[in-house]
Amino acid sequence: MQNLKRKVEYLSGQENDINSQISNAERRPGKKPKKEVEVWITNVQRFKDDVQSLEQEVVGETTNVSSCIQLGKDIAKKILEVQELQKKGSDFNSLMIDEDTTGRLLQPLSEDFVKCTKARNTENIWECVMNDDVTKIGVYGMGGVGKTTTMKYIHNQLLKEKGKFDYVYWVTVSKAFDITKLQSDIANAMNLGNCLNDKDETKRASQLHAVLDRQKRYVLILDDVWERFDLESVGIPEPKRSNGCKLVLTTRSLEVCKRMKCTPVKVDLLTEEEALTLFRSIVVGNDTVLAPDVEEIAAKIAEECACLPLAIVTLAGSCRALKGTREWRNALDELISSTKHVSGGESEVFEQLKFSYSRLGDKVLQDCFLYCSLYPEDHKIPVNELIEYWIMEGLIGERNNVEAKFDKGHAILGKLTSTCLLESSFDRDGIEFLWMHDLIRDMALRITASSPRFMVKAGERLESIPHEDWSEDLERTSFMYSQIIELPIRPPVCPRLTTLLLNNVYIQEIPDSFFTNMRCLELLDLSRNGMRSLPQSISNLENLHALILVHCCELKYVPPVEKLKALKEFKLTSSKIEEVPTGIEELVNLRELDLSFNTVLTFPSCKLRRLSKLQCLRIERTRVEVSAEDLLCLWQLKFVSVHFRNVQELTGYVTSQQFQGLEKYCLAVGEHPLSILSPGKRVCIMFKSVPFGSGVDQLVLPADMSAFRLVGFHEPITLSAIPWLKDASNLRRCAVSCCNGLKSIFSSSTFSKDGQISLGTVESFFFSSLPRLRVLFDGIALPHSICFNLKELFFQKCSIMKYIFPVQLLQNFPNLWSLTVRQCENLEDIIVEKEEKSGWGHHRDDSNTITLSKLEILDLGNLPRLTSIYNGVMVCPSIEQVIVAKCPSVRRLPLSLHMDSEQATAPPALRVIVGEEEWWESLEWDGPLTRTILQPFFLSRDPDEDDDDEL
């Protein structure tokens, strides 16, 4: 028994270690324990209970010989069992697996609304979802009652409910029902990529059905269903009790629920108490109370909303700015007055919502709000795109610079979202977008049905546009994201039309006379379409302020534009155009000209000189080369992205007074570059294949330059010795590639007596295709006091480098967080104890442990001769990712384990170690626990996978 207890004690320690590793790993999203590990832990617990019972029997039995013999046999069996459990616990290749997050993402929702209504409005829905006998549920109620918000709450609760459903998918259907779109949306929600690769709806339905039919225990939520449809025609299998699947749809119509054979569940209006609570929480928050007389008025306003949540939220938002009893009483009077002529139904709801629109007061705010209705229903409206439209429409007044205009746009958005007429959110990439409730959008469209007069067919599927829809009083028209087969051959008569949005429609041809009767047109957006030429009638749009032709990949011809004297913004990008439209030099009122990514475009840059009001000029990735004189004629420039003819022209411009006033610039010189740093960067300059004899050695660069790229220098050189980089005190990002003469980055000649070193401010270095680069530092012995700002270091195709860092230099890089080395065929070490040449010995530290406190990413790829990352131990408390791909000779990971309360654990921030399975199995470990502790973080990669991206 004592022997068994000792083995159980060891097993308990093994169990504690595994539980600790699981606990640490579960802190990172997307990880869960393997099923076999969970089973092992359950078996260990059961075994320990059995041993405890057995021990009690042993203590109680001391006289009966036969009983003792039997107990001895039972103990012997348990000893064999515990040994098997110990072996199983040691043999786990990994403890965790990546959890499929498909169908596991939470939906954003209004907490104020949920607090007021969740108990009453979710109880019946939740009961149906949990009832195995109910497979299809129809959640219905009037528009604005909170169906979507309630279902978002249910959706999120289902994700937290363990064991019932494996996946919960959310798909928005909307009023303009389209089977093909719904099929794609379901596939996207399931993260199926391009599995529906057929255009035929029936074949797509079969493909989708096959995928869904293989899945069990999922909930598919279809939000905002307006009409009955056949599940099989879409490819949705009929939910059954046997497969544990559910279909939930939200709709305004009980009839839709019945025709879809769903169990109907109604979402009721709020009670008066809930309505007042919700209203109050939005107006003043939960921690503030209203004055008694104001509270009474607020209750009456909430009562006027007929307990409809959307109306309450929207009106409460418009009442946030009210001060004092008189303003509150006036608001109540106006609300009563606006709704007294209507009663019941949607008309009353629309009048209540319109009240919030009217109380915006400012016409600019109202026009900006109405503009959002030009987007399709349920469309995520990109914030920056919307503000650009406002600027082009003149809704944002004149400002000194582009940034000031965007600041004003964001201020307007702040007011619209604070009144709850728009909702703001962020997508997975952190991009901000806006969303408009469909009832609020319908209210806006009702307003624009008269004055101002809109025609909105955005997102709809149209064979053609009836000629009678083009009425003479139209002011703005939107067909964005529609599927239009053809435009009317007979030109529409729209003498008052100012805005026409025909972007993302993919039309192939525009009738030649289409724009003939649109003489007041100010904004025309034809972006992302497939036409090869534009009609001649565009040439006569003399009031046009903005012509947007972004990503028109097939476009080869734009008619003459000399009559478009009012044009302020002209964007023509990513096309096949070879020459700029005739008469572009006559556009003397242009503020923005973007001709980027037209790879075959060329024209004499002197044509730009008359465009004296230009504030933004972008001509990157073209064959156009400019001179300093061209730009100096444009004295209002704030943002420039161009390619200079030679170094002298670049020098002449960056030393000019005009250059000092730029907000952003992206400048290139040399051969036509294949790539260029993004103009989104604050400032950058690029060189390609410019010989020193052309004047580069006399070049003067701006002191505020923050990004720099050098391509194609072939003279022997050390980067820090380049004269015009020595004083670049704001340089943060530097990229060097295809420079055959570059031998080192830093040299002793650039080390100044006052302790300063050239390029010491750089945060990111990118080095690629440098066949003679031997070392980072050539002959420099740096004192401990010198600290570089380097955070990110990238090497690729540096064929003669044998190591990256001497260990003595690491103390000079305290901020390093990312180190990437790829395709350096002769690299043998990442960090070496002593450099090949003399001069480092007196700096040597005999300690075998180094600390890289901020290192988060170590990415090593395709390094056939690499044998060592570091021969000692690396303490990296911030390390998140370790990638060792196609490095067959590396036999050791030098990562130090983390000591937590005298217990060894993985580094606290570690998320993943990536490598080939064969490499992982061949590693030698510093201690018996190291592999066990790091194993859960290992992610095997395909050895044939090619991930060596070009710089």
Distinctive features:
20-stranded parallel beta sheet; 951 residues; five-stranded parallel beta sheet; single chain; 30% helix; globular; alpha/beta
What does this structure look like?
With 951 residues, the chain is of the alpha/beta class. Helix content is 30%, strand content 17%. The protein has a 20-stranded parallel sheet. Strands 4-5-6-3-7 form a five-stranded parallel sheet, with helices on both faces. The chain has a three-stranded antiparallel sheet with strand order 8-10-9. β5, α8 and β6 (246-251) form a beta-alpha-beta unit. α12 (309-318) runs parallel beside α14, α13 runs antiparallel to α14 (345-358) and α14 (345-358) packs across α18. It is globular. It starts with a helix and ends in an 11-residue tail after the last strand. Residues 100-104, 672-683, 688-696 and 835-846 have low confidence and may be disordered.
Number of beta-strand segments: 41
How far apart are the termini? 65 Å
What value does the Rg take, in angstroms? 34 Å
The helix fraction, in percent, is 25-40%
The main pleated sheet reads as: 20 strands, parallel
Number of helices: 23
Shape: globular
What class would the helix/strand composition place it in? alpha/beta
**Overall pLDDT level:** 81
Q: Which spans of ≥5 residues are poorly predicted at pLDDT below 50?
A: 100-104, 672-683, 688-696, 835-846
Q: What proportion strand?
A: 15-25%
